């Protein structure tokens, strides 16, 4: 799970080109220069667990609205005598900032607390001086382009004196903590204008969090060292746009035809709002057109990937594809500009062979409109005539691995008759193969099938639509393989998880948590329901009939080998005859080239792929386990569709051990469906010890498509017509907001509120950086109403003040327990008007049952910052359907939460899994 990049050659976006664009240099400053001091003050270490930085103030233990005393000491259980003080460090020659605390007795902490001790927080401080241009008069202030690598948050504080103003609320920006490739610096507005005559000093605070998963095990001296890199440049805003080739999404051509229909071009606004209104190939081509999928509007300083559709009627063989975009400024001038890109094209024969076998980079539109690439090896041979194509092998990469590098695909075994598909998972880390990364994995297979179908020249290597797959993965991807197989067992034929960890909480334990010293365990349990869908071990009951070949290096230094041993043991506890082979490669470390490429795995794949006509075996008794029905598929045709208490696990045990009799025992399930063939030859059906009448018409006709649906009515089960509307998706956790069906709408209710706009820009930046998810910023309540009227499918984030009239008008007819009374936000009897509150809650989408809204509202600027940090951009942030955070969270983390819970099935109050102070 720990990142794999240490094994890789630094990546250059050159494999299939990238766009050599005609464009200006990255930063066009009109002479402003930013000078970052090389000397830093450091305060720490403080124990925290892996995601507490989302709840705690990034400047913990400091309050940046108060003067800072560099002589003061602070309590920390890591230090001898229990207190830590400020120390100093210097940036290295190559610009790295190395943070370590050599006086701490790390080996003692590690001996008792293990890796949990290697999670800690520190505050880093330095200063930044802005020098005005030489001939300064009437020069607008610059903004900062900030690239923070491997730091969690950064803020810029005004004034040469620290904290001169009590009302100052720092604006925190997430760093690129995973060191993701191809991440643009973020634009930060200065907190106060600089002098145009003399240098102006600002203070820079960084939250530096050591995470064992990111920084790896300490070197031989046992001292954990964080290596951060911070670069800051000044950029003068100007009304224009530029191409950002690092954001482009390419697509290879096979035998002259694009292997997919999507191409993306990165564009950034340097100032002002711009809309891409048209696109064309330039020069015009015979038999190939490039169409703009939809107009794309960029907010000031925003970067988006412009979606372009390729339509081809003739082969294209040139080495580059020229594309011209036309953009219109939304300012009154309606100024028009064009941007010209020249995209190098990688041409491959249909099909490459033997020693020359090349991976193909294909493309498709994720969530309808987001250009997305994947890589794939074609099968070595054509499909066998008159036979169904063989299912593909879906291969999930480890953390930190970018599929544009050949490292991953080259580690996979090409097959005679199967495609080997390596999806991006959105980015090198994505969401650890859950949420949008999981959707990307399935969608890449669907895209491959659609692409091959669309061109008759490729039919001989076609893949069936909705094909099942064999899953394979290494490290984080091994974990992803367990995850996808156990959530969608009927779409998976077999799994090969290698060097997998079970779940994040088991990988780096949460036991050094700060909030746990303050929080009511009952409240902690409610928050942690949002981790349940990720608890792979709890869902292993779903895999008892699946052929599994699990692999782990016996000396894995990155993901300890006990993880796979334990997963196999859990599986065998459910069913001692589970079809699992465990191969422990003695003495091997985390990565070795033969981990997935060897004769044993090939023999396993051959046996699985050759017998696909026979369905998987079915045990006489098995248990289906589900946390969120909308994020889970069926097992042997059985599917849990609704839970009695949402936030708790649902289980369905099917027992066919007695002939002609089918017994089902449910736990926390109130609706499920089954394939009628599951009960073939069955005379009697007992559910929860009550006999059901099998003569009802639904059963005899098998419902629609052979599916029958059962619902609990009080204590009794009854058949319901399967045509009856299935309940829409009510998310059990805020993280599911990331799984949008179209680009996000980030709505800022008050278009005059610069902090609200900044938060929308920050979230848009993070969605792109961490997940390559596209978002449009919609400024103002009226614009939002217009957008709704024109219909929008994407998830909607509403940012605003809890007391704003526009919020009151949106919540006029409450659809959740949140409501507005006398201009204040209320939840049940709680009046949410105290300063510093950050409030997040999911809410139905106005017209799409499978989309959702998320409200991120606050009682003031400090509350907005707190709420904004809970937007779950990374795995493991414990935010269920709603959460209310307060100023107390700054120092005691999740224990400062005033309320949290999981909505009931109809967005109602669910008292079993809810809490309010
Ligand atoms: C900024 O940092 C430099 C170098 O560390 C130091 O000499 C200077 O005093 C600092 N300025 C302020 C205002 O803190
Ligand atoms: C901090 O300590 C130094 C040296 O002990 C002393 O000179 C300085 O005045 C102290 N500063 C404050 C703000 O107490
Ligand atoms: C591989 O490519 C090289 C050069 O393009 C060619 O000479 C060779 O015959 C090819 N080998 C195979 C097995 O196709
Ligand atoms: C386990 O799976 C393999 C691979 O599909 C298959 O060959 C074997 O027959 C299965 N064993 C059992 C007991 O079902
Ligand atoms: C925004 O500010 C402008 C100019 O100050 C003002 O005219 C307008 O009424 C404000 N709009 C809102 C919604 O407050
Ligand atoms: C931080 O300090 C300011 C100014 O003293 C104060 O108003 C605020 O409540 C403090 N914040 C917290 C979380 O204690």
Automatic annotation (TrEMBL):
GO molecular function list: serine-type peptidase activity
Extent of the signal sequence: 1-21
A Pfam family annotated for this UniProt entry: Peptidase_S9
Keyword Signal assigned: yes
GO biological process, one term: proteolysis
Ranges for domain Peptidase S9 prolyl oligopeptidase catalytic: 457-607
Coiled coil: none
Protein name stated in the entry: Transmembrane protein
Taxonomy of the source species: Eukaryota, Fungi, Dikarya, Basidiomycota, Agaricomycotina
């Amino acid at each position: 799970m720990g990142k794999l990049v240490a094994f890789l050659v630094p990546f250059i976006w050159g494999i299939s080109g990238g766009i050599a664009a005609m464009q200006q240099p990255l930063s066009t400053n009109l002479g402003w220069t930013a000078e970052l001091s090389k000397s830093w003050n450091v305060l720490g270490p403080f124990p925290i667990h892996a995601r507490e930085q989302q709840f705690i103030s990034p400047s913990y233990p400091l309050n940046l609205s108060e003067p800072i005393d560099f002589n003061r000491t602070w309590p920390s259980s890591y230090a001898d005598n229990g207190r830590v003080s400020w120390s100093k460090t210097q940036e290295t020659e190559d610009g790295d900032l190395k943070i370590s605390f050599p006086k701490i007795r790390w080996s003692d902490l590690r001996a008792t607390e293990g890796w949990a001790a290697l999670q800690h927080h520190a505050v880093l401080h330095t200063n930044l001086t802005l020098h005005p241009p030489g001939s300064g008069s009437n020069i607008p202030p610059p903004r900062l382009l900030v690239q923070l690598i491997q730091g969690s948050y950064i803020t810029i504080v005004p004034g040469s004196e620290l904290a001169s103003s009590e009302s100052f609320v720092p604006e925190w920006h997430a760093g690129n903590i995973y060191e993701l490739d191809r991440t643009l610096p973020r634009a930060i507005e200065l907190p106060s204008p600089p002098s145009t005559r003399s240098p102006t000093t600002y203070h820079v605070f960084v939250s530096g969090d050591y995470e064992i998963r990111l920084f790896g095990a300490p070197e031989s001296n046992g001292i954990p060292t964080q290596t951060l890199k911070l670069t800051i440049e000044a950029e003068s805003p100007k009304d224009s746009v530029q191409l950002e080739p690092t954001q482009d999404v390419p697509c290879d051509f096979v035998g002259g035809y694009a292997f997919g229909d999507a191409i993306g071009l990165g564009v950034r606004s340097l100032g002002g709002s711009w809309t891409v209104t048209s696109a064309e190939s330039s020069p015009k081509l015979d038999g190939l057109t490039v169409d703009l999928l939809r107009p794309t509007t960029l907010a000031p300083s925003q970067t988006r990937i412009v979606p372009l559709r390729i339509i081809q009627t003739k082969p294209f063989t040139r080495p580059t594809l020229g594309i011209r975009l036309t953009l219109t400024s939304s300012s009154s001038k309606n100024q028009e500009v064009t941007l010209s890109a020249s995209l190098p094209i990688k041409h491959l024969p249909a099909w490459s062979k033997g020693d020359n076998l090349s991976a193909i980079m294909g493309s498709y539109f994720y969530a309808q409109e987001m250009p997305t690439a994947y890589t794939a090896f074609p099968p070595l041979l054509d499909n066998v005539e008159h036979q169904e194509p063989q299912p593909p092998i879906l291969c999930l990469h480890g953390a930190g691995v970018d599929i544009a590098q050949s490292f991953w695909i080259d580690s996979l075994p090409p097959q005679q008759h199967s495609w080997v598909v390596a999806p991006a998972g959105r980015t090198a880390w994505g969401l650890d193969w859950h949420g949008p990364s999981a959707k990307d994995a399935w969608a890449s297979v669907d895209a491959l099938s659609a692409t091959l179908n669309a061109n008759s020249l490729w039919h001989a290597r076609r893949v069936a639509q909705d094909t099942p797959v064999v899953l394979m993965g290494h490290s984080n991807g091994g974990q992803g393989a367990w995850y996808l197989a156990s959530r969608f067992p009927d779409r998976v034929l077999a799994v090969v998880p290698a060097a997998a960890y079970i779940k994040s909480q088991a990988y780096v334990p949460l036991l050094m948590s700060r909030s746990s010293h303050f929080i009511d365990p009952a409240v902690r349990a409610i928050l942690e329901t949002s981790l349940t869908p990720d608890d792979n071990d709890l869902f292993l009951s779903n895999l008892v009939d699946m052929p599994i070949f699990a692999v782990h290096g016996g000396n894995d230094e990155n993901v300890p080998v006990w993880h796979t041993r334990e997963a196999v043991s859990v599986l065998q506890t459910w069913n001692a005859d589970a079809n699992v082979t465990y191969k422990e490669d003695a003495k091997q470390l985390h990565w070795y080239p033969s981990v997935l490429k060897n004769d044993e795995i090939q023999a396993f794949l051959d046996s699985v792929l050759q017998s696909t006509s026979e369905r998987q075996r079915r045990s006489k008794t098995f248990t289906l386990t589900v946390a969120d029905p909308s994020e889970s598929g069926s097992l042997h045709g059985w599917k849990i569709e609704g839970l009695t208490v949402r936030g708790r696990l649902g289980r369905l045990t099917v027992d066919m051990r007695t002939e002609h009799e089918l017994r089902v025992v449910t736990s926390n399930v109130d609706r499920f469906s089954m394939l009628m063939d599951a009960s073939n030859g069955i005379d009697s059906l007992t559910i929860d010890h009550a006999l059901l009448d099998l003569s009802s018409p639904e059963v005899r006709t098998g419902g629609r498509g052979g599916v029958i649906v059962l619902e609990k009515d009080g204590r009794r089960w009854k058949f319901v017509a399967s045509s009856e509307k299935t309940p829409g998706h009510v998310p059990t956790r805020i993280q599911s907001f990331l799984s949008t069906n179209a680009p996000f709408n980030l709505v800022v209710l008050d278009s005059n509120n610069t902090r609200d706009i900044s938060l929308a820009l920050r979230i848009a930046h993070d969605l792109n950086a961490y997940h390559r998810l596209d978002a449009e910023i919609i400024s103002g309540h009226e614009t939002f109403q217009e957008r709704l009227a024109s219909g929008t499918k994407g998830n909607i984030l509403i940012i605003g003040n809890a007391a704003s009239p526009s919020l009151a008008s949106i919540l006029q007819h409450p659809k959740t327990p949140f409501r507005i009374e006398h201009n204040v936000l209320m939840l049940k009897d709680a009046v949410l008007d105290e300063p510093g509150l950050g409030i997040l809650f999911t809410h139905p989408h106005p017209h799409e049952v499978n989309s959702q809204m998320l409200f991120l509202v606050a009682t003031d600027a400090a509350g907005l910052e707190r709420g904004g940090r809970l937007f779950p951009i990374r795995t493991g942030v414990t935010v269920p359907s709603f959460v209310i955070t307060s100023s107390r969270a700054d120092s005691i983390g999740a224990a400062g939460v005033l309320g949290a819970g999981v909505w009931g099935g109809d967005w109602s109050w669910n008292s079993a899994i809810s809490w309010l102070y």
